[in-house]
Amino acid sequence: MRGGRRTRGRTIARWTSFVLIGGYLLLPLIAMLDFSTRAPGGRRTLDPWLAIGQDEDLIESIIISLQIAALTVVGVLLLLVPTMTWAYLRVPRMKRPIEFLCLLPLAIPAIVLVVGIAPIFAAIRRNATGSPLALVLIDIVLVLPFVHRALDAGLRSIDVATLAEAARSLGAGWPRIIAQIIVPNIRPALLSAAVISVALVLGEFTISSLLNYNTVQVVISLLGKRDAFVAVAVSLGALIFAFLLILGVASVTPSGRRAAEENATGEPS
Amino acid sequence: MTTLTTHADGDAGREGVAVQLIDLHRYYGPVRALDGLTLDIEPGELVALLGPSGCGKTTALRSLAGLDEPDSGRVVVGGRDITHVPANRRDMGVVFQAYSLFPNMSARDNVAYGLRLRGIEAAERYRRVDELLDLVGLGHHAAHYPHQLSGGQQQRVALARALAIRPQVLLLDEPLSALDAKVRRQLREEIRRIQLMVGTTTLFVTHDQEEALALGDRVGVMSAGRLEQIAPPAELYDRPRTAFVAEFVGLTNRLPGLAHEGMVNVLDSQVPLLDGSAGAGRVTALVRPEAIRLVPDDGAEARVLAVSFLGSLCRVQVAAGDGTLVVAQVAAQEARDLRPGVTVAISLLKMPVFATGA
Amino acid sequence: MTEVAVPRTASDATAGAGPTSEGAGSRQLRRVRDYLGVVPFLSYVTLFMLVPTAIVVIGAFQSDDGAPTLQNIVTVLSGAAFRDAFVRSITLSAQTAIIGATLGGLLAWALMDSEPNGWLRRIVLSACAVLSQFGGVMLAFAFLATFAFNGLATTFMREVLGLDVLGGSWIYGMNGLMVVYTYFQIPLMVIIFLPALGGLRSEWWEASSSLGGSGWRFWRHVGGPILAPSFLGALLLLFANAFSAYATAAALVSQGSPIVPLRIRGALTSEVVLGQANVGKALALGMIVVVAIVMLLYALVQRRASRWVK
Hints:
The structure holds 3 protein chains of 3 kinds. By secondary structure, chain A is mainly α. Chain A is built from 13 helices and 2 strands, in the order H-E-E-H-H-H-H-H-H-H-H-H-H-H-H. Chain A has a single domain (52-265), classed as MetI-like (MetI-like fold). Chain B is built from 8 helices and 20 strands. In chain B, strand 16 (302-309) and strand 17 form a beta hairpin. In chain B, helix 3 (122-135) crosses helix 4. Chain B starts with 18 loop residues before the first strand and ends with a strand. Residues 1-14 of chain B have low confidence and may be disordered. The chains are: A mainly alpha, B alpha+beta, C mainly alpha. The interface between A and C is large, with 86 and 87 residues.
């Protein structure tokens, strides 16, 4: 399918699908841009966008969400990197169960998780301060599937077993191996995992709202009832921000070798 | 009536069509995959295209198959210009390097696919399929799926599938490269046997020179999109026309020499020069290991460095008097007295050599 | 060559070389120590994922004072409102899964031949990641900006085309949910399905072509059958995704609770009616059952898919 004959019909079909479906996906985003820049008399204004910086609740919620995101990244990496490395090297039999447990959050709807965790959080609230940072505990669970997938790909791409054995034969102990050998070599995977986690935490609504914490999505939602224009502006801004974040990481990480091999261009041989 | 045209005597009445690639050019940006390739294949002939990776041999095959459209030039098969005919109307059988069997079909269904597309009825279809699977020695594996077959078996099915449609031309794109050595050699013989039996004009692409020399009626050596030389295997080996061919096919020693009037003086021996060589003054002669004679001689200056035992032959590394490293090939019996440290007298057999400018 | 007797050292024993009781014992100790390494992870996951799920499952079978009962289940199964919510949730998920899979599959196919590391693919995949995973509330606003009374599309149709067909309130109902859900199903399909398309080897297409097959015949006999399991798997994932979704509906639907997740919200936030406290848990249990079935089917289909495309 690559590098060979392409009938014109095929290319036309491809571009048509692309434009039509892509257009459908772009339409609401354009509508958001339009909506958030409307001024009376058919003119344009940037007021809603500027108002973002002035809404105190919003700024506060952004800061809180960023804090939660940072703690979530640290927490999930501290939890998973040693565990997965350990499984890879010492108890390979646990690899499958760990993978299963990490994928389980995909099968448990957030709304269901909230129902079950509400009692636990009520207990935490009674004893602790009730700070939104408690959400970190759940967000770590929510990001498990994505972080596991990224770390798994990273660990598989470096031959963990061989590197660890080489380090062991030279006299290194386990903590040193993880910190100085494994981690530096899976940096792209770590970065990818971190970015996905941040994006997910910033976009999380279900649990925050039902447990009554004011994270950024909750505040945006409340804002929608108060000032639709600013709400739409900040939504579009957040979407663009997340897009740039993910695009940035995708541009920095090296490509999957397998994908490159299978889709080799028509190079002469 | 047999459905396959078979000939007990390989030479008698070869069927098949003539193939001509005329001045093909194909560019990928600045890279010239094909740079004016012209190649004729006689009816029923097996031409092996040999060359390093990137030389354009696969591009040439794909242009013939219709899987790649050349930027200029013509492809003529059986007198018909098919340059712009799409691949699915060219009536060619292609065997790819690997992974070309449809994984969702059994060996039987894979081989029957082309026949099914042509609307041949089930009974007739499966009769031919069984005949072909027997021909490639896989009659018992008809119901197996590709993932249940070994690499060699998969390639046999691929061959049967290509032959099922009784193509005008058979194209094999490095079909043995993904297999291990022993299977490769076995399958090589089989492919040649079947090709001779069926008599289809065939193009075989490979980077393995042993394969090319063993299989081809003629072997074409390609480099940088052009055909360097095309000739029967022996002629290619003994009388290379360019330095590239001389060095790519077989082993060579690059030895300094002095050329004059069609002869060259190398290691104190005079040998004739091949056509196309550099003619005068200091040259580099490309000498085959088997053209070098070593005789133990206490007073000589050359010294044996190492001997590699290869069964019926030995490869002997010698440091000549002036320090040049020479690799000679000697029959095992004659190598008995050649041990590291022994001094030898070197001389060349009177086989013509190719020489390039120094 | 003389033989040297090598004395057996302590390290030989711990390397598990000999069947001495000392060696076997310390080997077992090491085994236990190895498993200890995964305990932190297991405890965390148990506490924050398995325990809450257990709370839901067990709570569904408990009455207000903790006594075992089937009343919650009965309430859910017999209540027309609850049954309707399930039917609507399932219908919505199925419809958007099918439409999303078809359109997303088409988009993935259009993207298939692009450079694997090219800018086009990277941009499209990043956009798909954002739109499918991170957007609940924000997507709701996007659609309001498009289809609400003053939305871009509504005003366009009204002023330019003279059609007031869209009205303006349909977006807040089930039809609105369908359009918005489809919107995030399409990118999800692209992300899930593109790798499967990538597994289609060019050799198959070329072999089919050289044997005389056209595009249609290839897809009918080779491409289609090979991709069918992956497509089905993706369809199931899309279903589960739509079924579990909450944020978009919460932001969009203003009246009532037509789908199950919103019903659960109602159960959580409303005043506790005597004897109804755990109905929310029963509803949640219902969701678990549906999603579990879908994921089971998905696992089965995936096994078939990976058999052919290794």
